[in-house]
Input
Amino acid sequence: MQFFSTRDAALRVSASQAIVQGLSKEGGLFVPESFPQVDVQAVCGLDYPAMAAAILKEYLTDYDPAFLAQAADKTYGAAFGGKAGYLAPVSEGVYALELWHGPTCAFKDYALQLMPKLLVEAKRNLNRTEKTLILVATSGDTGKAALDGYHDIPGGEIAVFDPTGGTSEIQRLQMATQEGENVSVYAVRGNFDDAQTGVKKVFADPEIAAKLAQRNTCLSSANSINWGRLVPQIVYYFAAYAQLMQAGKVKFGDEVDFCVPTGNFGDILAGYYAKRMGLPVGRLVCASNRNNVLTDFLETGSYTADRTFYKTTSPSMDILVSSNLERLLWHVTGSDAEVADLMNQLNRTGRYTVRPETLAAIQETFSCGWVEEEEVAQEIRARYEQDGYLCDTHTAVAFHVAGKQQRPGVPMVVLSTASPFKFPCSVLAALGAQVPENDFEAMHALEQLTGRTAPASLAALASKPERFSTIIDPAQIAQVALGEE
Ligand SMILES: *Cc1c(COP(=O)(O)O)cnc(C)c1O
Output
């Protein structure tokens, strides 16, 4: 299996190369040259680690399959408390795919616990011995998941940049207390876009690259533009389907719909890959918060990133440029020239419009809906009071949209992307309870109110020493990269 660039299909690389490099040199994203067809029924009979290994080996063909099996075992066994890909029944025909039983309590653990292992092995496959410096701008969940995944990996260092005041207190503490010799965390003055732009500047600066090369260091990204972030996420769509078959809710071949709380379009795109690999996925429903740039696009074919940015209670979906949509555009148009043109328009003008045929092809699989802030809170309360199901703000966005898009007789699986205890203040407020000032008191109050227990890794934060407190300006990210800070 080789990988193309979405903006230059003549450019082909191996899976190892795609993972080490992250982004193609002309700015395109790597996509697989074909969708491997698997024996879906056989894959559905496997346990989660074996299922992961079976899917990974279809794409990562230059990796040793024994290595992939071992990496999947190590990643998705004990670290997920035996609940990797766990599907919880919620109400008639509606299920929650709980993706937050990993170490940092958000779905990004699925990719970021595995990716460091894939990176180290890719360097071995390619006989590369340089040090890898990973820079991550985060609005919250990615930063912690990346720190947890990359801490103490051989030959790598990681620096994370989070906006001052842009994350929940729990998210900030998750990062500030991270252990490991090769990690650092900086709060960047400004919002997420300021941090992100600062990091992108460093990646695009040839002088910095040259200086780092002299020290045998290469920059790399852990953001979801990397193919290594996407491929592990395909697995849990299979796991959900397998559990519905085992529970007798579907026969093999029956369609299942999935509703995904979406930001960068990575998680939902993995469902598209699962469908193209033969899994009987019906509709993929894209759920947005008030930053509804994607739902506008899926309805009209016009993508307009130049619009007001809203800070919402589902911060990991507060995003206006959804990078992974570029991959879908490539798969439906099959034209690198067309994708390159659209992405140039986006860079120049903040908007683009696809051809009507392209939109129609996308709408065959994708539908969408978006949710106002009051509806998020109402949904958390409704699921709790009507179904006894406690969910976080991101998952609530998807539940609300799923409720409107459910088809008679077709099971609807909502991807539950974060633990409710990661956003205890918003969840408490939604349940109509008094909200304490401090996140830990809120966590405790939520436990008392609901009789559920907060994940141990979150509760433990209260007593962990904070290691990182440096605040920098976006312009200083370059100095950090060069070790001058
Ligand atoms: C990152 C994130 C999302 C959005 O996922 P994308 O792959 O960026 O679309 C949704 N919910 C939570 C909790 C997240 O951390």
